[in-house]
Amino acid sequence: MSIWKHRHVTVVVSGGIASYKAAMLIRLLMKQGATVRVVMTVHATEFVTPLTFQTLTQQPVVTDEFTMTDPQHVVHVELADWTELMLVVPATANLIAKMAQGLADDVATTTILATTAPKLVVPAMNSHMFANPATQRNLAQLTADGVRVLDPATGMLAEGYAGKGRMPEPDEILNWATTVFLAQQTDLPLHGERVLVTAGGTREPIDPVRYISNRSSGKMGYAIAEAARNLGATVTLISAPSALATPAGVTRIDVTTAQDLLTAVEAEFKTTDMLVMAAAVSDYRPATTAMQKIKKQADHEPLTLHLTETADILKTLATVKQHQFVIGFAAETQALLANANRKLAAKKLDMIVANDVSKPGVGFNGDTNQVTMLRPEHEPVTTPLLSKAAVAEQILLTALQTREEE
Ligand SMILES: Cc1cc2nc3c(=O)[nH]c(=O)nc-3n(C[C@H](O)[C@H](O)[C@H](O)COP(=O)(O)O)c2cc1C
């Protein structure tokens, strides 16, 4: 599930050296399921051909409003009304100035003026052009008009010197656009709420090169973070090592050990409305971490590692819990429901998601899962074997329903 699926996004491309990066952003939007249409300024066509965008979007590219192929519709009005979100990428100093003035002297500016959709502007230009008081004045005007402006990156410019004015990378732009777009959808069930998700398997160091960990891939936690975002929440993901990409619009905090994870969760918990502890946190860690790599023992003597319990995060949180709805996970290989029920009560959880990781298609690493949700004074609910994304959504919707009953 993606919040971009079937959404109507218009990308306005103006004539800067970063115009080619708009193609990459469009690819990312298309991958998320958006329907994208492109308007180009005449100067933009000097940098990238309309054919590139037409091929990527599988839609005609608008460069001129006076060649009316469809007598039923005026090009800019039809496009402006179709648009649900408008992205101006890259936005030249010139286009920004025109927008600030409300000019409409070509099809790009006319469409921008004619749409009521939210507008996101990504300035990209030479650092002196960006710092120029006129540009700064124009950007301040756009912000005052309710247009969202992404701050350019600082780095090497096409001119061969460093400065502020670079267009941020397409994945950063998508991230930002996702956050802005979601925040505007006030009818989503988790709108205005902060959801904290933990994911991945912690690593407890034995020595500088070895650690104790588990088979968690982080997929379930990442799916929950994404689902919470799609339901309108502001999401922070505390991630133990995982190879997965951060879902767009989600703030990720990286941790390694169980102790790091506890510290990070404690720092965020107060301002959280819902906590989902999907991380596989080590129950034990080596009592001491060797400063140097442990060598093979002489005479083939066995090596004994002394383990000590790690902090119990959920138990610690139970003592400071206020309004937060707390969801734990229980990955078990035997006596699933009995063990999960014990954990639910001992840790004062609002819900525990139990999964039997010994079953095929369930638990660690795979793309599917089947879970049983246990809540105090409720009958258990078992999902069918579903994609982790679908399971994630069911967990959050069940949590919301339970919270509403309270
Ligand atoms: C090689 C080249 C690169 C340019 N890069 C930029 C740029 O990155 N940002 C910018 O604001 N203008 C840039 N310009 C200037 C714009 O192309 C110029 O201001 C033009 O009038 C913008 O038209 P438009 O806003 O209608 O697309 C560049 C010009 C050239 C020739």
From TrEMBL:
Entries under SUPFAM superfamilies matching the protein: CoaB-like, Homo-oligomeric flavin-containing Cys decarboxylases, HFCD
E.C. no: 4.1.1.36, 6.3.2.5
Coiled coil: none
Name of the protein in its database record: Coenzyme A biosynthesis bifunctional protein CoaBC
The species this protein was found in: Lactiplantibacillus fabifermentans DSM 21115
GO cellular component: phosphopantothenoylcysteine decarboxylase complex
Annotated positions binding CTP: 283, 293, 329, 343, 347
NCBIfam families: coaBC_dfp
Record-annotated DNA/pantothenate metabolism flavoprotein C-terminal domain positions: 190-397
Transmembrane segments: none
Keyword Nucleotide-binding in record: no
Region (Phosphopantothenate--cysteine ligase): 195-406
Domain Flavoprotein: 8-176
InterPro entries assigned: CoaB-like_sf (IPR035929), CoaBC (IPR005252), DNA/pantothenate-metab_flavo_C (IPR007085), Flavin_trans-like (IPR036551), Flavoprotein (IPR003382)
Co-factor binding details: Binds 1 FMN per subunit.
Keyword annotations from UniProtKB, A to Z: Decarboxylase, Flavoprotein, FMN, Ligase, Lyase, Magnesium, Metal-binding, Multifunctional enzyme
